Amino acid sequence: MYKKLHIPSNVSEENGNNIMSSAVQIQAYRTLDADGVRDFIAAHPALAQRLGGPFTEWSVREVSDGNLNMVWLLHGSHGSLCVKQSLPHVRVDPAWKMPLDRTFFEAEWLRAATPFVSGGIPDFLHFDQDMYVLVTECLDDCVIFSRLLSDGQGDPIRVAREIGRLTASLAVGMSYLSSPFEKVWEQERVFLKNKSLTRITVDLIFTDPYADHPRNHFHPALAPLVERLRTDRKIHRAVCALQQIFLTSKECLLHGDLHAGSIMVGNDKIAVIDGEFALSGPVGFDCGLFIGSLVMAAFSAETVYREQIFQSIDIFKESFRSEFLGCWSRRPDNGDLAPRSLSGRDQEDAFISSYLEKIFREAKGFSALEIIRRLTGYAHTPYFAHLPEAVSGERQAEALSFALSLLTEDQVSGG
Ligand code: SR1
Ligand code: MG
Q1: Helix 195-206, helix 350-376: angle, nearest 10
Q2: Mapping DSSP to helix (H, G, I), strand (E, B) and coil, where does residue 53 land?
Q3: Residue 8 gets which letter from DSSP?
Q4: Which atom of ligand 1 approaches the CA of 262 most closely?
Q5: Which residues line ligand 1 (CB under 6 A)?
Q6: pLDDT digit string (tens) for 246-299?
Q7: Burial annotation 53-70 (CB, 10 A radius, 16+ → b, else e)
Q8: How much of the chain is helix, strand and coil, in % rounded to 5?
């Protein structure tokens, strides 16, 4: 009845670091360099046509910026493309081995999200399951939102409004609110295999910052607060409660890594990229990661911009709420959660109101975890890098204290 999604046989069944467990996975794969990327595109006529002109005249620029993959932008006489390839390790740490399958999950996330966010994600163009190469629209003239925030340049209110709209539309569209359970489970089956990147999330966000893990590093000014992270029972209880929600609440298909580094901003476009961490989970997780990013950017900024960023968090929530309710009241008839026979179109409906409260309560907890891990764990935020050392320490300590206060609020920690 429902279209079965094809999972290539070389998508890893293994966990974490066992990349070489699948001989099939590495047979055809080779890591591309700029010339290899040019040849790859030249061998795909539909993609080559988008660039136009002789392939020798295409410009190929490596712009790898995230922790995991290689990324190139190609320009020809007619157009442009973005090419992304997984490496058999974390890009910024070759000793950390990693299966290649993450570009497959990013491709699947793009395909799943496209019907709900036209223009809010790059156009999916091609996925090569042997080379783990994903080709998408190139977001020319867009800049990564985290870079804009770091430079004190972006308009956080405009971005927050749009991201609120996008996340709400995805949350309703890719959940039981809009689909029968058979369809949701079929999609979930695909992303349940995204084990190596979910392992990164479980370790880096939910576990390592609360222990003396060798991957952790932090500014010396944070030492007393880090000690609390490792010893405070109320904090540990709150983290366990959030782990439980993250691991067991399969409410919708999530982006899974929705910090400001996964958002591109241009004059006429705002788009979410890097869906490789996609998984089924609680709606509040994506919201929390986005809010956590904004909070850190706010603490690193000077007064006026700081106020604007804090204000953008409220705008995000308003926009999310309004779009969530709008999508919910226009939802198709065949969703198995809160069908019209039980829960109408009325935006004051008791079920949908309490669901929204739950989403924001959980988002608050997840935002705290995102702040904590970006200040004390493995993968840090760029926001404080431009500040003098002592000021950076003070601001990070302010942000971390704020996160601890969120986490130990009774409604997050469970009392
Ligand atoms: C080893 S990957 C570290 C972090 O980078 C990604 O963007 C995710 O945020 C992940 O947690
Ligand atoms: Mg990323």
Answers
A1: 80
A2: coil
A3: P
A4: 7
A5: 66-68, 90, 200, 204, 257, 379
A6: 999 999 999 999 999 999 999 999 999 999 999 999 999 999 999 999 999 999
A7: eebeebebeeeeebebbb
A8: 55, 10, 35
